[in-house]
Specification:
Layout (H helix, E strand, L loop, with lengths): L1 H14 L19 E3 L4 E6 L5 E8 L8 E7 L5 E6 L5 E9 L3 E17 L1 H4 L8 H6 L3 E8 L16 E4 L9 H14 L3 E7 L11 H5 L5 H38 L21 H6 L10 E5 L10 H17 L6 E4 L15 H11 L6 E4 L16 H14 L12 E8 L2 E7 L5 E3 L8 E4 L5 E3 L1 E5 L2 E5 L8 E4 L9 E3 L8 E2 L4
Parallel strand pairs: 1-7, 7-10, 7-11, 8-10, 11-12, 12-13
Antiparallel strand pairs: 2-5, 3-4, 3-6, 6-7, 8-9, 14-15, 15-20, 16-22, 17-18, 17-21, 19-20, 21-23
Helix pairs in contact: 4-10, 8-9
């Protein structure tokens, strides 16, 4: 009922004529305490009266801040929309940004630094307050240059223009309910880069990937044509029904005005719920929780999701392509970095075939690394097969940050991934495996024998195997298999293998077959 009412309230201006802006206004993503992306022109947009000229002026707030006098202008179009860009700025601040038209808005304590959008379902939404070492972490959370923007849960059938959120500095008061993964990622960057960090958290527990994907992403992946058509049909049907809905609401408005004048009984407003208002429908969360911040200047995005799609198998890779390419298209910043978390082990065995759902998602996530500027944090060693919400979010954030430090911030000395399967070769009764990202060498945790390796012959029956390290390769064998043809590693939902590189980053599960 609440979502229906909110939508109807937003719909009413269509019934009473063009919306007239009383002065310059901004979306909430622009506010005091915000971080704007450094070293690139920063898009700024908002609304005003049609034809109104808007002037933006950036000025330093303190004597020790490099003086700047950046001014840019914009003119609102016939619908009252305007957009401009601030010049590229180095990291620093604080600055004051004044936006002047028929009125003046003043945003203070503005910094330039590194901005990341952090999204997904519950493991991204999971707050610091119920993660590992929460009391100590909250007490130590005094980072005024790490800024937080938490977008509330709001699905929408149509792209929305704003969200109810504000920027805040990181303190012991602001951090408890913020995304733990996002915070630990941002803190790792801040300690290494010593520049302001802006974290935009837009996540919702229990959601699938489809609602986060814009139509442009769905349209670009042929394997998802049925989902794209579903969205298209829903929108077309809704548009076809609007004339009748408008007539009903107009009649209700007239009757309600009369009732208010005469104190007659009030009748409920006619239903105008958009079919895509449900948080589980494709595009609904993109519309309500991502579109309002596009095209805010960002360095990249983080993604932790997949539990609600854990039965998808290979098609999840296609859905990841749609999400990533869709976000990149609507943002218009090229192939910005997109780093994601590979799901942790969890026991889905209460579902038929559940022990193999998760390995196939792992495989689909690994395949997504073929997209440019992507990276994957493996978590097989820091999960909890009895809890879909592992509490160790510090290492998840840290591993995502390693990708960013190495790929985006030029840290050549950073090993950012554990071993990823590259190739195999049969050598007699053994199979030799090679890997990317061996780091300074291959090893096992605590120097114990390697675990969760299986090998099979032509009969496709896998048995437990021994794996030994030989330089930067592994040699896998079993006395039960004389003529091996395939190897699997960690191919089970509860697998917590111990194969890592010497930097301690775990290998991703894999299989050499396609059976």
């Amino acid at each position: 009922m609440e979502l229906t009412l909110l939508f109807l309230i937003g719909f009413l201006p269509l019934l009473i004529g063009s919306f007239a802006y009383s002065g310059v206004t901004l979306p909430r993503v622009f506010g005091s305490n915000m971080v704007l992306q450094r070293d690139m022109q920063a898009p700024i947009w908002g609304w005003a009266s049609p034809g109104e000229e808007i002037t933006l002026t950036l000025s330093a707030e303190a004597e020790d801040v490099e003086p700047v006098s950046a001014t840019t202008t914009a003119v609102a179009d016939a619908e009252g929309n305007w957009q401009t860009k601030l010049p590229a700025m180095a990291a620093g601040g604080p600055y004051t940004l004044r936006i002047t038209g028929s009125n003046t808005l003043e945003l203070t304590n503005v910094l330039f630094g590194e901005v990341w959008v952090c999204s997904g379902q519950s493991n991204m939404e999971w707050p610091v307050s119920i993660s590992n070492d929460s009391e100590e972490e909250i007490a130590a959370a005094m980072y005024p240059k790490i800024r937080l923007f938490h977008i509330p849960r709001v699905p929408s059938g149509l792209p929305q223009q704003d969200v109810e959120a504000d920027w805040s500095e990181t303190t012991s008061e602001t951090i408890p309910n913020f995304s733990a993964v996002a915070y630990y990622f941002g803190r790792k960057l801040y300690k290494n880069l010593d520049v302001p960090i802006g974290l935009i958290n837009t996540s919702w527990g229990g959601t699938r990937i489809e609602p986060w994907t814009p139509p442009a992403g769905l349209d670009g992946v042929p394997a998802l044509a049925s989902i794209s058509k579903e969205v298209e049909d829903i929108q077309a049907n809704y548009r076809a029904q609007l004339p009748d809905k408008i007539n009903a609401i107009e009649a209700w408005l007239a009757e309600t005005r009369k009732a208010l004048e005469t104190e007659a009984p009030l009748k409920p407003m006619p239903d105008n719920t958009h079919p895509l208002m449900d948080a589980g429908r494709p595009t609904a969360l993109y519309n309500g929780m991502v579109h309002p911040i596009v095209p805010y200047g960002i360095r990249g995005a983080l993604w932790y999701q997949g539990e609600s799609n854990h039965q998808d198998g290979p098609i999840y890779h296609e859905k990841m392509k749609a999400l990533i390419n869709g976000w990149r298209e609507v943002w218009g910043q090229g192939d910005f970095p997109f780093y994601f978390v590979q799901l942790a082990p969890f026991n889905y065995s209460n579902q038929e075939g559940g022990e193999f759902f998760l390995p196939q998602i792992w495989e689909a996530q690994t395949a997504t690394l073929a997209l440019p500027n992507t990276g994957m944090a493996v978590t097989t060693d820091i999960g909890n097969p009895r809890d879909v919400h592992p509490r160790n979010k510090q290492d998840v954030g840290r591993r995502l940050a390693l990708w960013a430090l190495a790929k985006d911030y030029g840290r050549d000395d950073v090993t950012y991934s554990g071993p990823l399967y590259k190739s195999m070769a049969v050598e007699g009764n053994t199979i030799r495996l090679t890997f990317d990202h061996v780091g300074s060498g291959l090893t096992s945790r605590e120097k114990k024998p390697l675990t969760w390796f299986q090998i099979a012959g032509e009969d496709k029956q896998f048995v437990e195997a021994q794996a030994t390290i030989d330089g930067d390769t592994l040699v896998v064998s079993s006395d039960a298999i004389a003529n091996p043809v395939a190897v699997r590693f960690g191919w089970h939902q509860s697998a917590e293998p111990n194969f890592v590189n010497k930097e301690g980053l775990p290998a991703s599960p894999f299989r050499t077959d396609s059976w």
